[in-house]
C-alpha cells in the first residue's frame, strides 16, 4: 500500500487533507513526512491577503483564485491552494470556518484545494500551523498558494514573514479607520487594494492610501506598492491585480529580494520552532520547579528576573 507521502505526491487530496489535520494536531509523524517532502518545496508563489473585517477578503481570494486558474497577464493556468484562517471563539475554542461557504463555487475545481484553519488564539492573524500547511501544499505541487488572514487589524503582520507577496485590502466607507491605520500594516504591503470600489468614496480611500504610503519607508527593495481598485464580486480589476502579483514575483526574482525574504522567513521559522520545542521539553521536566518559583514570586521571596535565572540555571 502506498505511503501517505507517495499518495500526496500522486495528487491524492484525501491524503493531503489527512496530513494537514495531523499538522494541526502537532503529530510527530507529520513532522517526519514534512521533513521528507522538504526538498520538493520552494516552488509555489505564496500570496497573503490581509485587511480589516468587512473589506471583502474572502471574495477577493475567490476571485483571484479564479483568475489564476484560467491564466492571465501572459501566464498559464495555475493550480491554487487556499488557506483561510478563521478566528477562534474565546469561549468554545471553536472557529466558524466560514470561508469554505464563501468560496463554495471553487469547490468543484480539481485544481483548487481549500483549507479553513482556526487561529486558536494565535496572534498576528495566522494559525500556528500555517507555515507547515504552506509547505505541505507546496510539496503537493500547488503552483500558487493564497493565505487569507483572520482580519483583526493593525497587528496582523505575521503574514509578511510567510508570503512572498502581501496584499493589504481596504474598502471605501471606513472613514477615519483608514486614517488611523499605523505604518505597520502599510509597511508590509506589496500591493494595496481598495475593494468594493463601486461604493461611494472609492477615490477618497485611494487618495488617503496614496498619501499615507508616501509617509512610509518602503525600504531598499526598489518596489513601489501599486494601489488598485477592485470589485471582487463582479471581477472588476481582478485581471490587473493578478498582473501586479506576477510583476511583484518577477521583481523579487530579478532583484534577489525574494531570496533574502526566504532566508529571513526560514530563520524566523527556525527560531520559533526551537523556542516551541525547547519550551515543550522544559515543561515536561520542569513543571514542579515552575510552580515553586511562581509561589516564591507571589510570596515576594524572589523577583521574576531571579526566577528566570534560577530556572535556566
Computed CA radius of gyration, to the nearest angstrom: 21 Å
- At the first level of CATH, the class of the largest domain is Alpha Beta
Instruction: Name the helix and strand elements from N-terminus to C-terminus, one letter apiece.
Output: HHHEHEHEHEHEHHEHEHHH
Remind me, CATH topology of the largest domain?
A: Rossmann fold
Low-confidence stretches: 89-99, 121-125
Record field, number of beta strands: 7
Helical amount? 40-55%
| CATH architectural type of the largest domain | 3-Layer(aba) Sandwich
Distance between the termini: 49 Å
Shape by Cα distribution: globular
Record the SSE blueprint.
Elements: H1 4-9, H2 13-24, H3 28-37, E1 45-51, H4 57-70, E2 80-86, H5 99-102, E3 112-118, H6 130-139, E4 144-148, H7 159-162, E5 165-170, H8 176-180, H9 183-187, E6 191-194, H10 202-213, E7 227-229, H11 238-255, H12 257-298, H13 304-312
Parallel strand pairs: 1-4, 1-5, 2-3, 2-4, 5-6, 6-7
Provide keyphrases for this structure.
3 domains, 313 residues, alpha/beta, 13 helices, 7-stranded parallel β-sheet, globular, 7 strands, single chain, 48% helix, Rossmann fold
